[in-house]
Amino acid sequence: MPNGWETVIGLEIHAQLSTASKIFCGCSTRFGDEPNSNTCPVCLGLPGALPVLNRRAVELGARAALALGLRINNVSIFSRKNYFYPDLPKGYQISQYDQPFSAAGVLEIMTALRDEAGHTREWQPKTIHITRLHLEEDAGKNVHEGLPDVDRFSYIDLNRAGTPLAEIVTEPEFRSSWEAYDYVNHVRRALQWVGASDADMEKGNLRCEANVSVRRVGDETFGTKVELKNLNSVRFMQRAIEFEVERHIKVLESGGRLVQETRLWDDRVGETRVMRSKEEAQEYRYFPEPDLPPLLVSDEYIAAIRDSMPELPEARRQRFSAQYGLSFNDASQLTSERSLADYYERAVAVSGDPRGAANWIRSELLRELEANGLEASASPVSPDELGALVGLINEGKISGKQAKDVLVEMFKTGKGAAAVVAEQGLVQVSDTGEIDRLIDEVLSANPGQLESYRSGKETLFGFFVGQVMKASQGKANPKVVNERLKAKLMK
Ligand SMILES: [Zn+2]
Q1: From the CA of 92, how far away is ligand 1's center (Å)?
Q2: What HEC string does 444-477 produce?
Q3: How far is the CA of 216 from the centre of ligand 1 (A)?
Q4: pLDDT tens digit sequence for 180-235
Q5: Does pTM surpass 0.85?
């Protein structure tokens, strides 16, 4: 970021709410079905068909709103947003306009200062104001690929038409592409955490648009903004914003003028390009949807939803640090998914060792899970058995090195820790007599090194430890080896 410039970014997220049926009819929302098979007169917009609001969509919208710190309005109004596009059969979208479902959100996120290469340097909290979260229906999809004569024809699949969405709009308060990146990740995790949305950008059930402008530091007014679309991953969004900021500054510093327009990110070339200029902007002629009554939500209803919510990810991260003494990074990773956080707490309860459980999950277990594309909830090693494994290490029954192999075997076979240890005949040698014998062997086999050590080359200590461990075939307790070796070498 060149000196003297400030970036201003506002974000709009569309998240598909995880209902089984659409927002105003009973059609299935299942992904990947035969095109146009999940449709009916309501979502096809046939004359005379009337919408009926899906109660579950309201419930999930409420969970999303509360998870993001929004206030839910007791009365909200559905409105028609009028525009023409082939994937919108009614010629309007049922959305919300001047009386949205929820508003005035205050959300604290963690955002990192990063170096040029994007490496995290330091995390700090930032408060984001969310203007509104409203409910609306999705449009269908134009299909331009994988069908005959796509060079001449467009195809339309209306299975998605009428799928419930939460649109989440922030104030323009992000000051860098990375803040936007951290916010979107925060929202994704929160929505998944409370079961409101799968929030999977690759499947398109979380979509993101960014409004980007720059201004001179100290300016009160906003610069000309550009709307970015086609941001199919959080990383694409970050790169698109970064590209746009640089482009704006270059244009302005060379005395040029920016045009308000919508641009698409093309990741193959790493550039944005113009989709449409704002002169072609739509006038949506919103008016209240005459076929739906106002949506009334009582305080009791909101309180009941609030009571049914799990402890939220950010609160849980803070509690993990306070209660278990975990670092910010450890606590963040262990609360990246709700099932992982549950797994960790169960393993702590069994092992009584918060640090040990954290280390084994973060290093060994997550590697196995990732390699197999599994979430913690589907781990072949249960949290009870991981806790048992940590217990065996702490009791000195097996070494850390042995435990790594035991965990791999547990993961492969689904067997318990004690069972694998017994099967493989793994016993850690902590017997000092046995270890002393190995040390004597090693010292007499390496007279040269012993001589050097005694004449001051103390770095050879590690060499001796290694030789003793090797002589024990990895079974010696390293702590005992260290103690006994020190004692012997002092003589
Ligand atoms: Zn339908």
Answers
A1: 15
A2: HHCHHHHHHHHCCCHHHHHHHHHHHHHHCCCCEC
A3: 50
A4: 999 999 999 999 999 999 998 888 889 999 999 999 888 888 888 999 988 888 98
A5: no
